[in-house]
Amino acid sequence: MKRGLVLFDPNETPPEEYRSRLGRLQERLRADGLACGFIYGDVASSGDICYLTNLTIYWNQGVLAVPDQGEPVFLTKLSKRVYPWMRSSSVVNDIRSNPDLGRAIVQFCRERLAGRASPKVALIDEAWWPESIVGNVRAALPEFDFASVEGAVRDQRAQPSQSE
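Below the sequence we write its predicted structure tokens.
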């Protein structure tokens, strides 16, 4: 796990590599009929989010929302004062704060996915998620079909890229 100052070094891992990683996840989501995949991260488990974006969550909690198309969105409990640093040290541009991550996920789903008929979304590696978040999100979105998808990012991480 990274600690201390985290920088984005395009010579270490180029932005195209992160886009490719996100693209492979989006292909899997589409193949599984999923409108979006949500990845939880905290101090103990942020490797998947870091692998996809270079965001290292060693200070709090966050959820990376990866829609089947388009740019990812990082949902966090952190204040907006850290947005410039987070944007400069990752490939994520859309960052949203909410003191309640469950509520942030619900807002994202209603904003971005509500127009879809019977939207199906994935809580990737749900066993890592706090039950309070999972329970609140499922209760607030009864019209959504939730899938628990295991290893969607870790499967990719097991295959080193050329830059790695």
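The longest helix spans residues 15-31.
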